Amino acid sequence: MKFSYYLLKKMVPGIPDKKKLADVLSVKSFEVEEVKADAMEIKIMPNRWSDAASHWGMAREAAAATGRKLSFAPKIIVNQPQNKGFLEQIKIEDPKLCPRYMAYYLELPKIGQSPVWMRKTLQTCGLRPVNAVVDILNYVMIETGQPLHAFDASKIKGGIRVRRAKTNETIETIDNQKIKLDKSILVIADREKLLAIAGIKGGESSKVDSKTKTIVIESANFDPVSIYRASKTIKLATDASQRFGHGLSPELCKIGIDRAIVLLKEICKATFLDSKDVYPKRQPKKILKFDEEKLQSVLGADIDSKTVSIILKSLGFRLLPKNMIEVPALRLDINIIEDLIEEVGRMYDLNKIPGKNPAVLLAPPEMDEYFLAAEKAKNSLMEMGFSEVRNSSFIPAKADGDVEMENPLSDDKRFLRNSLVYHLRENVKTNHRFSGNVRIFEIGKVFLKGFKEEYHLAMAVSLKSGDYVFRELRGPAENLLRSLGLTDYAFVPEGSKLRLESDHEVLGYLFPDPKNKAAFLEIDFDKTRHLMEGEREYLEISPYPSIIRDISFTVPASVRMNLILEAIADLRIENLDDVDLIDYLNIADDRISLTLRLVFQSMKKTLSDEEANRSTAKIADILASDFKAEIR
Fold it and tell me: DSSP 3-state helix, strand, coil percentages of the chain (rounded to 5)?
């Protein structure tokens, strides 16, 4: 928004030059974007248009920011002529859309040009001079912030009504645009015609011209949302619509219209004959209790009471007894004590406030156990060549769902799943069209009776041939459990299934699906991760390097991997840090090929190759003797 430095200096004598004023305002009030000749381009924040989008408001900011005195105060007219018969009835049909409507009736001997100083100020602010009446109203708008409009009084028939437009009602504006309206748009009308689009533009039918002898000055307040929407609907934006669209105080109406009367009398020799003010519900006063301790705790600065009082008074706040503060009517942005504190802080200069570290207790963030376990499981499975899938929680079949929806989205989404396998089985069928071998997994919620929710993990392996698919899933399943830190578990035969148990709890089942040449594992992930928590431990990292040995061998297909690991553990080999299954292959003659990776590491010294080789030989001997292994 453009401001005239000449007018600001007139309102606040002694303010610094334009450049210095721009620097001060940018720090304490509003960002000054450009200074050029007499014009200062200042960016007004949306919540400050009611008080600061005017020279009066900006002068108050400049005075407070520079420690000068504001010398301008609009004159308020008291005992003005009222109900003298020159103005007919004024009716507001929807007070929510128009909280206040004021009209002043004046007689003019003639309409000439406005003074040179006024025309220059308007041009500096981007407005085009027209004639004395229009120029005075525009000047008052940029001076006080209140938009005004003048009607030719002789063209108004049967009073003024503030109402909604009728469907397809049209108006010709003063710049000869024909605009179609609808019921959402507020208009000013008389008994016969439309006079103006409320808060946006005047109409041709009541325009002031060179023959005008009597005028009605309108000063009103309109609902900001209504004006904003109307401006967008008819694609017409004006200075008035911008101001009303941001929200103005109804108390500004009298300030603006009284200032216009003073200038019309002075410049146009107008006679003030009548007035009406329709103000159904006055804007309530806002009074806040000020708390100096709160100010110090929020700002982190010890600002003395005298400085606080000077700052608040300079901004127009009224200090009342018992630390009560009356908020100026135009400051619609001030609602709570923190708003007052912000006013004090910015005018005191936030750069003066010393920086301090926050005096708070810093606690480590809580760990999301489910997330950590799920990420660990996903990473392990993806390293083994599995792809993650995500399926809907809804299923069509009651067989796989205990919980039925009262209002299902469709018939194929009637039940909530109680197992992840239903959709995994469909995934396997679908993927068989594109790939012979399928390795997929899912981690997600299942829903049991009573709307009990559990997190499950399910894996699926499907081979084109269908051979050994059960074993192809068991190996990765055991790798997954070990990667999660779960070592005390067992797969117990139960018919065609294997029941996964740990710590006397059933975690899930591994079972074949010959029809689809697939095998599935589904486990209760909540139970599994709780067992993991008990096995988590933190060990000191060895400062010495590790030695790795791989041992490959074949064993009968009936040999269980957990028994091999138990046998190696029973050897109690010193410095054997880890044993991992890194390769698994089905071979002929009902035998399987395995490769174990042995990691040796000491906390006390660097191990030699000879020590690692001796330990590896012991493990090879126990594999050969106990499991009929053939070392390769």
Answer: 35, 25, 40
DSSP 8-state code for residue 511: E
Q: CB of 235 within 8 A of CB of 200?
A: no
Calpha distance 420→458 (Å, rounded): 6
Does this model's pTM top 0.85? My answer is no
For 369-535, the fitting CATH number among 2.30.33.40, 2.60.40.10, 3.30.930.10, 3.40.190.170 is: 3.30.930.10
Element (H, E) at 427: helix 421-431
Angle between helices 55-66 and 18-28 (to 10 degrees): 90
Q: How far apart are CA 37 and CA 124, in angstroms?
A: 9
Q: Residue 339: name the closest of 325, 351, 349 by CA.
A: 325
Tell which residue, 488, 492, 395, has the closest CA to residue 447: 395
Domain 547-631 adopts which CATH fold? Alpha-Beta Plaits (3.30.70)
What DSSP state is assigned to residue 112? -
Residues 6+ apart with CB under 8 A from 74: 56, 143, 144, 255, 256, 258, 259
DSSP state of 473: H
Q: What is the pLDDT of residues 479-538, one digit of tens each?
A: 899 888 887 888 888 988 999 998 889 999 999 888 888 899 999 999 988 887 544 556
Contact 538, 549 (CB under 8 A): no
How many C-beta neighbours within 10 Å does residue 446 have? 25
